[in-house]
Design goal:
302 residues; mainly alpha; two-stranded antiparallel ribbon
């Protein structure tokens, strides 16, 4: 995303480093390791399903943005080596991440019928979970709103560009509006905290709020705006990003201009000052998403 937005030469070297890490992490059977120690030894036989899905999302994004053909080829080899495991996923977020990776791939190869059908089967796994949990008031995929919630309706809405299915569209927008009404009810982004999450028919936790949820929300509002062209969602995309800058429940910024890192979350005692890799990546993904959306919007206006 950084290279695509800014074309920085130094970014090419970083892409090579990170792509090589994923290559090193992939097992012979196509699954991935995840945690590594300082001796370059993996700490588990197989990473979590979520880490698998995020790897597929990254590799899918690479199909459209790889600056070198060898990056594209290596990423493609890893993507298709992992593909036989897609249908075995159980975690709804892992399924959503993987669907997003497939949707990125299909932007570049829209006529791949086999992968399109695989996307359909994964999408209807989410539909099955929705049908099992949703009722007249609770329009969601499980009895609890937990972490990275926005990624689920986002994946469904991304898939509708390649799957012409009215039920998918309806569930995508219904779950989106359900989540939107909860996290934007105060006029700014107030995401669900991880203390006790938000269980069906119970109050939601306000703290701790984590950047990963904010990034998913930014991406979701961008996707809904691209589909509907409704300016309300463009504004809410920007408002969601401003959570990092102090438009949040504590009115405190999480992005640190001195370190160029992002703090790990909003807690009952204030800000968690640790600046982890995930939080910092979440900030920059959100920043670049908004930057590119504004750039496109102003180019069209001109």
């Amino acid at each position: 995303m950084q290279y695509d937005a800014f074309g920085e030469k130094a970014t090419k070297k970083r892409i090579s480093t990170y792509l090589n890490y994923i290559y090193y992490a992939q097992r012979e059977d196509g699954l991935f390791h995840n945690f590594m120690n300082f001796q370059n030894e993996f700490l588990e036989e197989t990473g979590s399903e979520d880490s698998f899905g995020r790897a597929i999302w990254a590799l899918g994004y690479l199909f459209n943005t790889a600056p070198f053909v060898d990056f594209y080829q290596l990423g493609s080899n890893m993507f298709f080596k992992a593909l036989p495991h897609f249908e075995n996923l159980k975690s709804i977020r892992a399924i959503a991440y993987t669907m997003m990776g497939i949707a990125e791939y299909l932007k570049q190869q829209p006529n791949d019928e086999h992968v399109t059908e695989l996307l359909r089967r994964l999408a209807f796994k989410l539909v099955h979970e929705y049908d099992a949990s949703a009722d007249e008031e609770w329009k969601w995929f499980e009895p609890v709103l937990a972490y990275d919630n926005a990624i689920i309706p986002l994946a469904i809405l991304m898939s509708t560009k390649f799957l012409n299915d009215d039920k998918l569209k309806k569930i995508g927008f219904t779950s989106f509006h359900f989540l939107e009404n909860i996290i934007m009810q105060h006029g700014f982004l107030s995401i669900i905290g991880n203390q006790k999450w938000a269980k069906q028919n119970q109050n939601m936790s306000k703290f701790g709020q984590q950047p990963i949820d904010v990034t998913a929300t930014v991406l979701l509002f961008r996707e809904v705006y691209e589909i509907t062209k409704n300016e309300e969602y463009f504004e809410k995309m920007i408002r969601s990003f401003e959570w990092f800058l102090g438009e949040n429940d504590l009115k405190l910024p999480l992005y640190d201009h001195n370190t160029k890192g992002c703090c790990d979350g909003l807690e009952t005692y204030g800000i968690n000052r640790n600046q982890g890799a995930e939080s910092t990546l979440c900030y920059f993904i959100s920043y670049i998403t908004v930057y590119k959306a504004l750039k496109i919007k102003f180019q069209v206006a001109e």
